[in-house]
Structure formats: C-alpha cells, structure tokens
Amino acid sequence: MEYVGYALSAACLLLGLAAAGRLLWKRWGRPRSVRAEVVDKHTAAYDGFAPEKGTVSGKTQYTVTFRTETGRLYTLEASPGFFEAVSVGERGVLTRQGDRLLDFEREDGAGD
C-alpha cells in the first residue's frame, strides 16, 4: 500500500514539473521569427503610492499588437522608444521569444 502512495506522489511531482516546464518554455523558449504587420498600439498608465516615502509615482505600459500572415495576433510589451518608432500598418519580420518582443525589422517601404 505504501508503494501506491509513493507512486501517486511521484506522479503528482512529475505533472507539476511538466506544467512548470511548459510555463518556462512559453516565456523563455527559443526565439521565433515571422512576417507580421503592426495592427495596434496601446498604452496603459498605472499609479502607485509609496507610503513610506509619501510619494506618488506612475508607470506606463506600452504594448504593440502584431498580426502574422496566418492571422494570429500577438500583443507584446514594448519599450517606450520602440513604441514611438513603430507605426500601425508597418510590415516586417517580428522576432519574439515566448511573450517577449525581441526585434521587429521593417520591410523597405512598409507603411507607405
């Protein structure tokens, strides 16, 4: 009977490790490049209060949405500089790693 308990514990541990591995692979898997178009840009502002300092600070999150040639949408967080430099309608090669934006190389004449 003890064997069944150990086997069940081992199975639960393996399932937990597999789930954690999937999450890590989604976030940090190998980089992937695909042809895509910028279809949307969005900002979201967040306010924060630091009671120990008595200050209010804010953060702005910049996101860019890309549509691949197959129609799949990726909404990825971008740096402020990238957000300002890219325009809706531009086409190029999107390189991402999981849910992280690594690069977007514009095609010549894209967005014209």
Question: Could you explain how this protein is built, in words?
Answer:
With 112 residues, the protein is of the alpha+beta class. The protein folds into two domains: 1-30; 31-112, OB fold (Dihydrolipoamide Acetyltransferase, E2P), CATH 2.40.50. It has helices at 2-28, 80-85; strands spanning 32-50, 55-68, 73-78, 91-97, 100-106. It has a five-stranded antiparallel β-sheet with strand order 3-2-1-4-5. A hairpin with a 4-residue loop joins β2 and β3 (73-78). It is flat. The mean pLDDT is 81.
Overview features:
112 residues, alpha+beta, OB fold (Dihydrolipoamide Acetyltransferase, E2P), five-stranded antiparallel beta sheet, 2 helices, flat
Average pLDDT for all residues: 81
Unreliable segments (pLDDT under 50, ≥5 consecutive)?
none
Could you give the order of strands across the largest sheet? 3-2-1-4-5
Overall morphology: flat
Number of strands: 5
**Helix-and-strand structural type:** alpha+beta
Sketch the topology as an H/E string, one letter per element.
HEEEHEE
Radius of gyration, CA atoms, in whole angstroms? 21 Å
Helix content: 25-40%
The CATH architecture of the largest domain would be Beta Barrel
Q: What is the C-level CATH assignment of the largest domain?
A: Mainly Beta
Q: Largest beta sheet, briefly?
A: 5 strands, antiparallel
- The count of helical stretches stands at 2
Give the tally of structural domains. 2
Separation of the first and last Cα atoms: 72 Å
The CATH topology label of the largest domain is OB fold (Dihydrolipoamide Acetyltransferase, E2P)
